[in-house]
Structure formats: C-alpha cells, structure tokens
C-alpha cells in the first residue's frame, strides 16, 4: 500500500489531493466518473482537509476486524481504564503502568507524567493528541496492528501476552 501511495503522490507532498487521487485511480485502471471519485475521495479524507495522508489511506483500505479481535482489544482497554468512564487518561495509567522503569525517566529527561503522556500518545488520534484515549482511538490503533496479523488466534495470543490478560 505504501508503494502505491507514493506512486500516486506525484508532487511528493506525502498527501494526495483530488487530482492525484483521480490520476492514481486511472493509472490502476479504475475508471469512474468525477462524482463517484469525489464520493470515494471524501470517504478516504477522514479529517476533511481536502487531502488524503497515508494514515487515512491505510485506515480506509484495511480489512474489518473479527468480533474476537474486537473483544480482546476491549479487554485490554478496560484494564487500562481504571475509572471505567470510557477514556484512558494519565490518572488511569498511574495504577497499571510503572513509569519509573522508562529509560527517559531514569536518566532524568522526563517526569512520570511525560512518560504517561508519551505512552498515551501511541494510541491517541494522530489529528488530536489530547492526552485522552477513547475506545474508538484504541480500537483504531489496534485495527492497524490487526491488519498485519493473519489469524485471530495469533492476534489474541499477542494481545494476551502484551496486556497480561
């Protein structure tokens, strides 16, 4: 997918505008009219910016997850969400993630809160890093991971080991 995206990105801006998108579709023998192309472009352009970045491209193309994968992801989320309010914050992490073992905390570069925030930023929306991770953002992060793992069994084992579920 990355190679296809780069080929379509004629101006090397790391985004696709509508013109590049249509040209790319034509290059790959997808012949549709302008109205259909605009509708599809809007589906890809998640943030409504008028361009498609690589993350938006991937999110739109990746396959849906099975219910088994969604359930194990939600188990991990519930483990992090100590307050049970559907949002993981720094306060939620204090009881489940030990920042004192992080190398940047140990060498004095970061405070505990900075370690927690960096951890949350991994899962947070790329367009709105606010230090709060919703179930949707957490699910979206793992949908990306899921796309590269063939079987449900392997994905579930990976999640159980990673989150000690």
Brief summary:
This protein has 165 residues and is mostly helical.
Describe this structure in words.
The chain is mainly alpha-helical and 165 residues long. The strands form 2 sheets. Strands 1-2 form a two-stranded antiparallel sheet. Strands 3-4 form a two-stranded antiparallel sheet. α5 packs parallel to α10 (152-163). The longest helix is centred in the middle third of the chain and has 14 residues, at 67-80. It has helices spanning 2-8, 18-27, 34-44, 54-61, 67-80, 90-93, 103-106, 112-123, 135-146, 152-163; strands at 15-16, 52-53, 87-88, 133-134. The chain folds into 2 domains: 1-61, EF-hand (Recoverin, domain 1, Orthogonal Bundle), CATH 1.10.238.10; 67-163, Recoverin, domain 1. It is built from 10 helices and 4 strands; from the N terminus they run αβααβααβαααβαα. Helices cover 57% and strands 5% of the residues. The radius of gyration is 19 Å and the shape is elongated. The mean pLDDT is 91.
CATH class of the largest domain equals: Mainly Alpha
What would you give as the CATH superfamily of the largest domain?
A: EF-hand
What is the chain-wise order of helices and strands?
Answer: HEHHEHHEHHHEHH
CATH topology of the largest domain: Recoverin, domain 1
The CATH architecture assignment of the largest domain turns out to be Orthogonal Bundle
Keywords: Calcium, Metal-binding, Repeat
InterPro entries: Ca-bind, EF-hand-dom_pair, EF_Hand_1_Ca_BS, EF_hand_dom
Domain EF-hand: 1-31, 32-67, 68-103
Pfam families: EF-hand_7 (PF13499)
């Amino acid at each position: 997918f990355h190679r296809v995206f780069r080929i379509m990105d004629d101006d090397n801006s790391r985004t696709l505008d509508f013109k590049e998108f249509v040209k790319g579709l034509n290059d790959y023998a997808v012949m549709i009219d302008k109205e259909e192309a605009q509708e599809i472009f809007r589906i890809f352009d998640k943030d409504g910016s008028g361009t498609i970045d690589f993350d938006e491209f991937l999110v739109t193309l990746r396959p849906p997850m099975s219910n088994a994968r969604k359930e194990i992801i939600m188990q991990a989320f519930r483990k992090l969400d100590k307050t049970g309010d559907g949002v993981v914050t720094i306060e939620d992490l204090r009881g489940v993630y030990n920042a004192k073992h992080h190398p940047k905390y140990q060498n004095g570069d970061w405070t505990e809160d900075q370690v927690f925030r960096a951890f949350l930023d991994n899962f947070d929306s790329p367009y709105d890093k606010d230090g709060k991770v919703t179930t949707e953002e957490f699910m979206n992060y793992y949908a990306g991971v899921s796309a590269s793992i063939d079987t449900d069994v392997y994905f579930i084992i990976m999640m159980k080991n990673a989150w000690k579920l």
